[in-house]
């Protein structure tokens, strides 16, 4: 590490602790400068510093304020956070730094072992060495070797969306839901895609907000519902002969329609599909609009034996109230908690609590966003019922799902997890 890349700023208000950190860092080859106050650090800051070790508990200007400062100046290098405060505070500060686009190398909980500090210092040196190596390679300048230009994001107007509806350009993809206990198939979630004749397959985040803006979301919801129910019929009457549950998201507009129970019941009868195969996923935000009317509609749907799922549970402010009011049969743990379970003990605690709550209320619990074996293996001991995510398969068209299903559905506990990944 060159002299340009070995400067360490230590922002620590305890002189003894600052001296200990400095001594350990100098052994690792760093040139150390210490600051007992945040204001002094801000005045001396420059972007060439290789590493910053920042204590959160500082007088006058605290560490959280300095995180914002480093974000404002677009600090490019790594940052280590340190504190003797509660672990939850440290984790929150780490998340804040990451949200502020800082390179948060790790957290150092006081009192710490010198070895823990040395590992982080060594990791920073490795990052710097890799960056220097990348910069020193004899590659053509970027202007001589440009990256492939990105296609501009298409801008859609009302007529584009209406034409898509009228010409049946919206299709449903299906993502498997897996029983955690024996790894057998439990069901699938239907997720809409736009197969545009010019732009190809378009993800829902590029058109759902526009559908809502132009008051076309109800039309799209019924397209998805009809396709999902037809697909249930094909899986039941085709070679697989399987009765598969399919979940469909219901828009807030559709949830206001008093004839929703009759219309969807008529669809299932038309295609000879058992209502228990259909799961209607509702978000909390949809329930906040005309709650009394929504409660009436949802209660009638449950009477007709359709399943109801509260989606993205844990991300809203009225989850507990909705659980008490609405006769949900299943609860989906939001992916933001599930995906953080490996590294974040608080996220795991939230997932565990939601699972326990769901079971106490007699509901099936589904974890979304399962992408690694480690997360999947954590869900079993917590008692989670169903898992969904890229670990098993990405969303796919109905025919591809059927092929995937024919290869995997009969395999139970003898199946090792990598075989599920397609």
3D architecture notes:
This protein has an eight-stranded mixed β-barrel with strand order 6-7-9-10-11-12-13-14, surrounded by four helices. Mean pLDDT is 84; it is low at 137-150 and 410-422. It is 42% helix and 19% strand. It is of the alpha/beta class. It is elongated, with a radius of gyration of 27 Å. The protein folds into two domains: 3-135, Rossmann fold, CATH 3.40.50.2300; 158-420, EAL domain (TIM Barrel), CATH 3.20.20. Helix 12 links the parallel strand 11 (307-313) and strand 12.
Record keyword descriptors for this entry.
single chain, about 425 residues, alpha/beta, Rossmann fold, TIM Barrel, 2 domains, eight-stranded mixed beta barrel, five-stranded parallel β-sheet, 16 helices, disordered C terminus
What's the layout of helices and strands?
Elements (H helix, E strand, L loop, with lengths): L6 E5 L3 H13 L3 E5 L2 H7 L6 E5 L7 H10 L5 E6 L3 H13 L3 E7 L4 H23 L21 H9 L3 E10 L5 E12 L3 E3 L5 H6 L3 H21 L7 E5 L10 H11 L7 E5 L1 H4 L3 H13 L3 E7 L5 H7 L4 E4 L1 H4 L6 H16 L3 E4 L5 H10 L3 E3 L9 H11 L14
Parallel strand pairs: 1-2, 1-3, 3-4, 4-5, 7-9, 9-10, 10-11, 11-12, 12-13, 13-14
Antiparallel strand pairs: 6-7, 6-14, 7-8
Q: What is the distance, rounded to the nearest whole angstrom, between the alpha carbons of the first and last residues? A: 42 Å
Order of helix and strand elements from N to C terminus: EHEHEHEHEHHEEEHHEHEHHEHEHHEHEH
Q: Pick out the low-confidence regions.
A: 137-150, 410-422
The fourth-level CATH homologous superfamily of the largest domain is EAL domain
Round the mean pLDDT to the nearest integer and report it: 84
Radius of gyration: 27 Å
In total, the number of domains comes to 2
The helix/strand class is alpha/beta
- Biggest beta-sheet profile: 8 strands, mixed, barrel
Helical content, roughly? 40-55%
Top-tier CATH class of the largest domain: Alpha Beta
Question: What is the strand arrangement across the widest sheet?
Answer: 6-7-9-10-11-12-13-14
